[in-house]
Amino acid sequence: MYDYIIGKVTRITPEYIVLEQNGIGYRVFTPNPYAFRVDEEIRKVFIHMYIREDAQQLFGFKTLEQRELFRKLIQVSGIGPKSALSILASGNPSQVITAIEMEDESFLVKFPGVGKKTARQMILDLKGRLGSLLEHVELPSAQDELPLFGGNAHRQEMEDAMQALRALGYSEKELAKILPALKERDDLETTESYMKYALKLLLNTK
């Protein structure tokens, strides 16, 4: 029904953004809401409309590649929209695509809600079936390691990032492991930068 919405972001929460267009505020769930900013800038957000009996939800993405991978992921048995968002929040799509094509289950199980069975199902369902998503991905050799993602003055930004990680499905136990490292980083100034660093730590500690 929707391909994209062009508007301005008027609200950011740990789970979704509000995108205003022609006087209507659309609640749009995104992989990382803090990748957006509340300002007067007009943005294009690529949309996937998810419909089920008890709900209609909009999922939004900064790039077309993110949205297309999201659509592929939710076709896999055992992966719902929330799990797909968690996977996309942790890095760019090429890293997930590489893991699928290289059958790297150990990488895929690092995401919330993805166990060995689901990781295997992702590989079975999607390997070799990602179409145009493979065009700009340079696959490493089998021996190469799959790259991960690339007294605090910004305590609120850090707490906002932790709340967003909870919304993605990370447990308090997992977050407690990385909190000391986050507190030591006085060079991180935005919620998005805390999110990126925290996700990198989470994927390295599992």
Automatic annotation (TrEMBL):
<dbReference type="GO" id="GO:0016787">
    <property type="term" value="F:hydrolase activity"/>
</dbReference>
<dbReference type="GO" id="GO:0005524">
    <property type="term" value="F:ATP binding"/>
</dbReference>
<feature type="domain" description="Helix-hairpin-helix DNA-binding motif class 1">
    <location>
        <begin position="106"/>
        <end position="125"/>
    </location>
</feature>
<keyword id="KW-0233">DNA recombination</keyword>
<keyword id="KW-0378">Hydrolase</keyword>
<dbReference type="Pfam" id="PF14520">
    <property type="entry name" value="HHH_5"/>
</dbReference>
<dbReference type="GO" id="GO:0000400">
    <property type="term" value="F:four-way junction DNA binding"/>
</dbReference>
<keyword id="KW-0227">DNA damage</keyword>
<dbReference type="GO" id="GO:0005737">
    <property type="term" value="C:cytoplasm"/>
</dbReference>
<dbReference type="Pfam" id="PF07499">
    <property type="entry name" value="RuvA_C"/>
</dbReference>
<comment type="function">
    <text>The RuvA-RuvB-RuvC complex processes Holliday junction (HJ) DNA during genetic recombination and DNA repair, while the RuvA-RuvB complex plays an important role in the rescue of blocked DNA replication forks via replication fork reversal (RFR). RuvA specifically binds to HJ cruciform DNA, conferring on it an open structure. The RuvB hexamer acts as an ATP-dependent pump, pulling dsDNA into and through the RuvAB complex. HJ branch migration allows RuvC to scan DNA until it finds its consensus sequence, where it cleaves and resolves the cruciform DNA.</text>
</comment>
<dbReference type="InterPro" id="IPR000085">
    <property type="entry name" value="RuvA"/>
</dbReference>
<dbReference type="InterPro" id="IPR011114">
    <property type="entry name" value="RuvA_C"/>
</dbReference>
<keyword id="KW-0234">DNA repair</keyword>
<comment type="subunit">
    <text>Homotetramer. Forms an RuvA(8)-RuvB(12)-Holliday junction (HJ) complex. HJ DNA is sandwiched between 2 RuvA tetramers; dsDNA enters through RuvA and exits via RuvB. An RuvB hexamer assembles on each DNA strand where it exits the tetramer. Each RuvB hexamer is contacted by two RuvA subunits (via domain III) on 2 adjacent RuvB subunits; this complex drives branch migration. In the full resolvosome a probable DNA-RuvA(4)-RuvB(12)-RuvC(2) complex forms which resolves the HJ.</text>
</comment>
<dbReference type="GO" id="GO:0048476">
    <property type="term" value="C:Holliday junction resolvase complex"/>
</dbReference>
<dbReference type="InterPro" id="IPR012340">
    <property type="entry name" value="NA-bd_OB-fold"/>
</dbReference>
<keyword id="KW-0963">Cytoplasm</keyword>
<dbReference type="Pfam" id="PF01330">
    <property type="entry name" value="RuvA_N"/>
</dbReference>
<keyword id="KW-0238">DNA-binding</keyword>
<dbReference type="InterPro" id="IPR003583">
    <property type="entry name" value="Hlx-hairpin-Hlx_DNA-bd_motif"/>
</dbReference>
<feature type="domain" description="Helix-hairpin-helix DNA-binding motif class 1">
    <location>
        <begin position="71"/>
        <end position="90"/>
    </location>
</feature>
<dbReference type="InterPro" id="IPR013849">
    <property type="entry name" value="DNA_helicase_Holl-junc_RuvA_I"/>
</dbReference>
<comment type="similarity">
    <text>Belongs to the RuvA family.</text>
</comment>
<dbReference type="InterPro" id="IPR036267">
    <property type="entry name" value="RuvA_C_sf"/>
</dbReference>
<dbReference type="GO" id="GO:0009379">
    <property type="term" value="C:Holliday junction helicase complex"/>
</dbReference>
<feature type="region of interest" description="Domain III">
    <location>
        <begin position="153"/>
        <end position="206"/>
    </location>
</feature>
<dbReference type="GO" id="GO:0006281">
    <property type="term" value="P:DNA repair"/>
</dbReference>
<protein>
    <recommendedName>
        <fullName>Holliday junction branch migration complex subunit RuvA</fullName>
    </recommendedName>
</protein>
<dbReference type="GO" id="GO:0006310">
    <property type="term" value="P:DNA recombination"/>
</dbReference>
<dbReference type="InterPro" id="IPR010994">
    <property type="entry name" value="RuvA_2-like"/>
</dbReference>
<dbReference type="GO" id="GO:0009378">
    <property type="term" value="F:four-way junction helicase activity"/>
</dbReference>
